[in-house]
Structures are given as structure tokens and as C-alpha cells.
Automatic annotation (TrEMBL):
GO terms for molecular function: 4 iron, 4 sulfur cluster binding; CoB--CoM heterodisulfide reductase activity; metal ion binding. One of its GO terms (biological process) is methanogenesis. Keywords: 4Fe-4S, Iron, Iron-sulfur, Metal-binding, Methanogenesis, Oxidoreductase. It is an enzyme of class 1 (oxidoreductase). Belongs to the HdrC family. Coiled coil: none annotated. Its EC number is 1.8.98.1. The keyword Protein biosynthesis does not apply. Pathway: Cofactor metabolism; coenzyme M-coenzyme B heterodisulfide reduction; coenzyme B and coenzyme M from coenzyme M-coenzyme B heterodisulfide: step 1/1. GO terms for cellular component: plasma membrane. This is CoB--CoM heterodisulfide reductase subunit C. It comes from Methanosarcina thermophila (strain ATCC 43570 / DSM 1825 / OCM 12 / VKM B-1830 / TM-1).
Length: 161
């Protein structure tokens, strides 16, 4: 990316410069206890404008529980910064294959998890309409969803680059 990461984050109201690298965020991260997510390191790399932070798969391991943000002694909006970094990562074409697949499903069916035959059958057994009142029941509504996605260039954003 041409612009410096720290500047982009600052412009979004997410200033990381007061981070003192104390590690309280990493130490309190429930996801980091089980994965390679190291919040302190991600913030340091973003602050140092290391573009590699955007291609780091660990960026996607945050569950957005906001524990780190609540505990940061410098009141840094850590989780919000991680979300902004994800947004920038997608813009640069970095996305986990699973997320790309889910995006394709939203474009195809209007749902990240479309209804399958088994669920339809279970609904019927419960006396429900097999297809609920969603875009899956109304093709014209699905077309509207697709038009909206196209209008906001969702398809371009999530396409493999
Ligand atoms: S808790 Fe706050 S000050 Fe400490 S390393 Fe994390 S972001 Fe920086
Ligand atoms: S918001 Fe994300 S990075 Fe922060 S503690 Fe929760 S899982 Fe960890």
C-alpha cells in the first residue's frame, strides 16, 4: 500500500503511537493463548509501517472480544485497529480462503451459510415452512441483494487478485 499504515490508522481515529509495548493486550488475549495471535507484535509492526502485517494470517485469529482494548493502560482502541487492519488487508487482496468462500456464498445465495436439504427436512418435521422468510424464498430479493453488493463493489473486493 502506498500510504503509511500508521497514518491511515491515525486518520481513522486509531492512533497507536502511545503504545508502550507493555504486552498487557497479548497477555490477556484468549485467542492468543491457543493460536499464534500476538496483538502487541501486530501493533508494533503497524506502527513501524511494516506492510507485511496485512498479509499476516494471525490478523484473522482475533475473535473481537475486546478484552485487550478494555485492559490497555494507554486506552488504545486495539480491537478497532485490528478491524481496520483487516479492512485494509482485504483491500490489498489479502483474505483467508475460508472468508473468500463465505463471501462467494453471500453473493450466490444471499447467505453466508445457505439452507441445506437436511435443515429443510428438519424444519418440515417441526411443522415449519421448509424455507424461512429470507432471500432464499424470494428470488427478486436475492437479486436486490446482489445489486447492492455490486453497487458497493463487494464482488471486486472479495475476488481473487
Ligand atoms: S496493552 Fe496497550 S500499551 Fe500495552 S502493548 Fe498492548 S496496545 Fe500497547
Ligand atoms: S479483541 Fe482480539 S486481540 Fe483483543 S483480546 Fe480479544 S481476541 Fe485478543
Amino acid at each position: 500500500m502506498s500510504e503509511k499504515l500508521s497514518k491511515v490508522l491515525k486518520a481513522a481515529g486509531l492512533d497507536l503511537l502511545s503504545c508502550m509495548q507493555c504486552g498487557a493486550c497479548t497477555g490477556s488475549c484468549p485467542s492468543g493463548r491457543h493460536t499464534g495471535l500476538n496483538t502487541r507484535r501486530i501493533l508494533r509492526d503497524a506502527r513501524k509501517n511494516r506492510a507485511s502485517v496485512l498479509s499476516d494470517d494471525a490478523l484473522w485469529l482475533c475473535t473481537t472480544c475486546y478484552t485487550c482494548q478494555e485492559r490497555c493502560p494507554r486506552d488504545i482502541p486495539i480491537t478497532d485497529a485490528l478491524l481496520e487492519l483487516r479492512r485494509l488487508a482485504v483491500k490489498e487482496g489479502f483474505m483467508l480462503p475460508e472468508h473468500r468462500r463465505i463471501s462467494e456464498m453471500v453473493e450466490e445465495c444471499g447467505h453466508a451459510v445457505p439452507l441445506d436439504e437436511e435443515t429443510k427436512q428438519k424444519r418440515e418435521e417441526l411443522g415449519l415452512d421448509p424455507i424461512p422468510e429470507t432471500v432464499q424464498k424470494y428470488p427478486e430479493a436475492l437479486q436486490e441483494v446482489r445489486s447492492l453488493l455490486k453497487a458497493c463493489k463487494f464482488d471486486e473486493l472479495t475476488a481473487e487478485k
